[in-house]
């Protein structure tokens, strides 16, 4: 498994090596030793507490979501289909504060993102269905949800397809300007 840096400080991309044969494929999706070495902290992999999966139909956008308090670290991959995944750095003390980057996550290359605490995260499903799996290092707590509108004019996220469905929470999310008053 190869580890790549990104344009965003501390965000890493794990690139596995799927084995293809007549049956299909096999791929390792996570390796604790490689993860600990990449983030430079023994036991870091063991800090992930919840593993979740969502299925989205084509054009769905989920996001942009963050977490208040000490935030949460996330490992994100697309197990089936493809998504346009977007991160925005909301760490005031980061050299990439306010910077966004998009990643293609799919079931061909199985790129796996490590997102440290202090980011907004969202994605759009690019295929008839797309399954996104993610691990978080703190139990989910809706009281700490942060959100910014996926179509915020200041963020100007270039979603590649027409947006088909969003949740009521995402439709009512606040602006980037409002979020900046909280971080
Ligand atoms: C995220 C989450 C939701 N839920 C519940 C709450 C709700 O009833 C239902 C659906 O929740 P949501 O609408 O918030 O799900 P969703 O919009 O898919 O939220 C997710 O979006 C992506 C972009 C992320 O980065 C995730 O961290 C998470 O925020 O599932 C959990 O029980 N645990 C969880 O970890």
TrEMBL record:
Gene Ontology molecular-function annotations: dTDP-4-dehydrorhamnose 3,5-epimerase activity
Residues annotated as the enzyme's active site: 65 (proton acceptor), 134 (proton donor)
SUPFAM superfamilies: RmlC-like cupins
GO CC, alphabetical: cytosol
Annotated EC: 5.1.3.13
First-tier enzyme category under EC: isomerase
Gene Ontology BP term (one): dTDP-rhamnose biosynthetic process
Entries under Pfam families matching the protein: dTDP_sugar_isom (PF00908)
The entry's keywords: Isomerase
Record's keyword annotation contains Transcription: no
Pathway: Carbohydrate biosynthesis; dTDP-L-rhamnose biosynthesis
Catalyzed reactions: dTDP-4-dehydro-6-deoxy-alpha-D-glucose = dTDP-4-dehydro-beta-L-rhamnose
Subunit text: Homodimer.
Assigned protein family: Belongs to the dTDP-4-dehydrorhamnose 3,5-epimerase family.
Main function: Catalyzes the epimerization of the C3' and C5'positions of dTDP-6-deoxy-D-xylo-4-hexulose, forming dTDP-6-deoxy-L-lyxo-4-hexulose.
Protein name listed in UniProt: dTDP-4-dehydrorhamnose 3,5-epimerase
Organism, scientific name: Antrihabitans stalagmiti
